[in-house]
Prior knowledge:
Blueprint: H1 6-20, H2 26-41, H3 55-79, H4 84-100, H5 108-123, H6 129-150
Helix pairs in contact: 1-5, 1-6, 2-3, 2-5, 4-6, 5-6
Amino acid sequence: MKEVGYEQIATVLETWDAARFGSKDFDNEFGMVALERLFELQPRAKKVFGYDQGEEVGKSHATVHATAFAGLFDSVFQMLGPDLEFIEDILRQVGRRHKSMGVSPSFFPYMGQALVHAVEKHLGKSLTAEQRIAWEDVYDSISNEIVKNILQ
C-alpha cells in the first residue's frame, strides 16, 4: 500500500470526525449521499446494486450498502498508521468481495469523487485545497489496494 504522510492522515481524520459527529444517523445519510453522487457520476454503477432488477430492489441494496460503506471507511481510517500489514489484509478482503459482486475497477475514481462530495455535504462547506489533496491521496492509496485485489 502506498504510504501517505501523517499530516494527510490527520487532516482526513479531522474532517471525517467533524462530518461524522454532525449527524445522528451518519452512516446511512453519508453513505446514501455518496452513493447518489456515484450514480450521478457513473450510472453503470447502479447495476451492482440491483437497479437492473427494479428501482425497489436497487434502493433496498443501496440502503444496506450505504451504512456498510460509511462503516468501512470509518474502520479503515481508524487503522491508518504505521502498521500497514493489517490494513492491507483488510483491503485484500474488501477487494475480493468487490470482485465477487462484479464491481468494475473503473468505478473507483468516481467513488473517490462521491466520497469527497459526501464529506463536503456533511461539513456544510467545501474542503480547502489542502484538505481535498489529503482526501484524494488517502483515498487513492486505499482504493489502489482494493483495485489491485479486484484485478487478481
